[in-house]
Queue: 4 jobs
Job 1
Amino acid sequence: MSAKLFKTKGIVLRTVKYGETSLIVTIYTELFGLQSYLVNGVRTATGRSSGKANLFQPAALLDLVVYHKDGRLLNRIREFQWGHLYEQIFQDVTKNAVALFIVELLTHCLKQPEENQPLFQFTEDCLLHLDQAAPTITANLSLFFALHLTHFFGVSPRIVHTKEGSLYFDLVDSVIANTPPLHENYLEGKKASCCAELLKSRQPSELDEIKMNQEMRRQLLQHMEYYFLQHVQEFRPLKSLPVLSAVLH
């Protein structure tokens, strides 16, 4: 059975040079989830990238016409164009660092090439908000994405506190509550309350209400990496995190 043609949106996750003029591109698609594609003729024989190769930068949002056959490890793209051309993400150092963190975190969580339109739409929405975001929202958006991403992989922290007072975020049992756990892997005080506020926020536009300094953001990002390492199978440390921490700092 031959591959069929489909139209789908996609978020570029990773690009690797192949041969003299081609790329192998890993894309998170709206219709098929995680997919790899061979894209011919987007680089010159001298190794330089043509203008078309610029569309395959990590975090790019594309409209695609693809050949797809279930079970095939490498499909082909027939047509591609910008789904949305960012105004700031590829030029702004801080926003680019946040976008690369979002892309790498998503990549490390995805294991199977299965469709998940709500996850695709959540990631797309975060990137679109990031492109237009004010500095405070930009600074908080990486943590917002990380905490809400846990929902799609079944490891979202539960908020169970019922009274005023100190909060404790149990990083092992995934609970934010008024009482500390019996082990040492938890956050407390302002760190725990900021995580609870981020989880309660429904849209990135709400993030300018959550106040924290740069050092707290840096520490919380490290704690979230630990959280994913504990709860997502075969999760690997994030190469983008030191860069993001330095930029936010």
Note: Helices lie at 93-109, 117-132, 135-152, 190-200, 214-231, 240-248.
Job 2
Amino acid sequence: MGNQLVIDVDRCTGCRSCETACSFAHYEEFNPRKSAVRVSIFTEDAFFLPQVCLQCAEPACAAVCPSGAMHASEIEGSYVVALNRDRCVGCHMCTLACPFGAVEDDGGGSVRKCDLCGGRPACVEACATKALSFAAVDSSPRAKRKAMADKMRLDGRD
């Protein structure tokens, strides 16, 4: 089993270092608008949510891609929905199909999405609070139920 990008929302402070690290890794500039990571900030609730491509097992973005530019691949042993920019025709059907808004227009005729930085995500390395990690995860339904039960049990304690 390969590694996955894991988000611990309880640790996120909304600093947006992940966004700038991502943009620098791909475009050599600190510009959050060029990041494949988005931090949604809900100030009234003091809640921050880093959002990134979930690397879906059955990616809607790849299913609608007429040129095959969006496709499942493997990077350093990890599953990734990859983008071949040379094959992209700029139709942006993938941006419409992604239910999570993780595929965006790059402003240059193509799209942008997380590619796991070739197996060493820059966002993870930049996250001082360890809200982002890149690790092997048991994604079985039982493991997910157990993790949710543990979180609910701990959240109920004050």
Note: Residues 141-155 form the longest helix (15 residues).
Job 3
Amino acid sequence: MLVSIREVHVGMFSESVDVVCTAEGQPESVTWAGESYTVCAEPVRWYERRQWWAEDSRAPLGSGPGVVDHEIWRVQVLPARMPSRSAQHLEAESPEPLTLDLARHLRSNRWRLMRIHDALRHRTA
């Protein structure tokens, strides 16, 4: 039985990832756990309030994104490189997109994988 990476890491956690963005700042590719993924659908962005009072002694007046809020991106990705197989097998086994929530720390421009939304899937050889 082959086990895919989505079976190992499903749910909520925080892990460092590398993200390449477009000129407009949208994620276009993700490297995680040694695997490269390409964003295959329009990403969605929002901001979430972080517990700045637990991390900093005070937030500057008028603070917003980066100090009080986290920038979150929900992306759908596919493996960047498909294993070499015949076209018939490739069509029969085309992967489903993996849905990820990524958080970007605006001051450092560092990215974290926060959540994987897809269910566990067992694949057989």
Note: Residues 87-92 form the longest helix (6 residues).
Job 4
Amino acid sequence: MKSIEELERIKEETLQEIRLRSASGSPRIVVGMGTCGIAAGARDTMLAVLDELRKRKKLDVTVTETGCIGLCSQEPIVTVEIPGEPEVVYGKVDPDKARQIVVSHIINHKPVEEWVINVEEQML
């Protein structure tokens, strides 16, 4: 750190990150971060979600992580929860797909149908 300005910038970036992860009563994105998810690239997927939300200044979205839900073959799994709408679960979400999900589903309110997985069918 070389200046107070740099410290202030770091502080603001950190506060934005905290807001992204904790907004309540708002849309929520959950990334599967069990060992199977991490092995499949969920860390990069999570970072892409956070980066895209930050770029678009969409700070009212909660971003959290969860453990394995038993669909290892579909990892990385991303769930989008919008109040008043059905939960949507996406499978095999790489960073590029994650960014597109943020834009299409969160910003434009249009789920990306071809990436949606039916959890009940997958569990059979």
Note: The CA atoms of residues 19 and 59 lie 6 Å apart.
